[in-house]
Design goal:
Elements: H1 2-15, E1 25-31, E2 38-44, E3 49-57, E4 65-75, E5 81-89, E6 92-99, H2 107-114
Antiparallel strand pairs: 1-2, 2-3, 3-4, 4-5, 5-6
């Protein structure tokens, strides 16, 4: 399940269109010491943004897992900002897709997120 969630996030991040190869990182934050929870965020000059935090659930138990909350966004070729807000926990990957004014979420994106 965790691998599926990670694969979905990576596929969507890679599939987001790029305007230029000269993309600059405008902001990067990371809080991860390798145990317990984590948090990271970044923003790029091409409009891509990502913010994610994870927390350890049921620490030390047989059903120990990580619950993740976050969002990522990009500017599509149509000039519309698309944002995916998600939770990934023991109930699976639960995305919500939003788009700015003037755009609709492409059916292929919806299908890839919802399986």
């Amino acid at each position: 399940m965790k691998l599926f969630v990670l694969a979905c996030v990576i596929v969507l991040a890679v599939a987001a269109p790029q305007k230029s190869r000269d993309v600059q990182i405008l902001r990067y934050e990371s809080d991860n010491i390798g145990v317990g929870g984590y948090r990271f965020a970044y923003e790029q000059s091409d409009g891509q943004r990502r913010d994610e935090q994870g927390s350890l659930q049921n620490e030390g138990r047989e059903n120990e897992s990580i619950a993740v909350k976050g969002s990522y966004s990009w500017i599509g070729p149509d000039g519309v900002t698309y944002t995916v807000t998600y939770i990934a926990d023991d109930n699976g990957f639960q995305p919500e897709i939003e788009q700015g004014p003037g755009g609709g979420v492409p059916p292929a994106v919806v299908a890839s997120l919802l399986g």
